[in-house]
Amino acid sequence: MKKLAVLFASLLMSFTLHAKEVAGVSIEDQLTINIQTLTLNGAGVRKMLFMDLYAGSLYTKHNTSDANTIINSKTPVAMQLDIVSSMITSERMAGTVNEGFETATSGDIAPVRERLDNFISVFSEDIVKGDRFIMLMIPGEGLKAYKNGTYLTTVEGDDFGRILLKIWLGEKPADRNLKRSMLNG
């Protein structure tokens, strides 16, 4: 009986350690990048007109369902975007990020315009289905952007990272269902 209990417990643990699948993308329970290890807070799909565009995953040091806690976090936070549609192009992504910043700043984009232009260069190369973008916000250091595991740039300023997070977690998120999924695991 004791062996059966141990077997059952190990099977249960193996289920919790496996990655989650979202829109056909394997989402890991932990993300280790730039010597930071973060835990999956939640993941979901960005949809438009019933079409899956990308899987969005939110990684934090401490899981929470409070968007403001994450936006104003004093510990690292990462957003991972896994492209699942050929509808996503570099031009569309740049435009979407611009629109997101307009919304997140209530139109007052001037204080971050130069840094935003630098960040948008992350999407200047062709974007194809299967690409993975990671935006790692490290308080006091800034936002580090990666594409398919390759470091691209750092954008200084905690304010920039907070604005970027507001695109998905703010009062007017890009997709309310995606926000809910990222906050509720």
TrEMBL record:
Transmembrane helix in keyword set: no
Classification via InterPro entries: Chalcone_isomerase, Chalcone_isomerase_3-sand, Chalcone_isomerase_sf
Protein keywords: Signal
Keyword Membrane applies: no
Domain Chalcone isomerase: 19-183
Extent of the signal sequence: 1-19
Pfam families hit by this protein: Chalcone_3
The protein, known as: Chalcone isomerase domain-containing protein
Source organism of the structure: Endozoicomonas lisbonensis
